[in-house]
Design a protein that fits this description.
The chain has 67 residues and is mostly helical. The chain is built from five helices and no strands. The longest helix has 11 residues, at 26-36. The mean pLDDT is 92.
Amino acid sequence: MSRLTLEELVSYFFHAQANGAHAYQPIDFVRLIEDLGLEKANALRAEIVQQLAGGRRLQVIQAELAA
């Protein structure tokens, strides 16, 4: 998987939200990526997208990844 830029990751996560519901705005994903770091966010993007698509709350995802 190729490395994505911050803007690409934000868009990727934004569009991965369950059922097209946009409960989270791009700034929420910018914060997530900044907390994780761009490298780690890229490494975990498949897991993050899977959880978002399943309807998992962003705060829960963020807390689990930080632990």
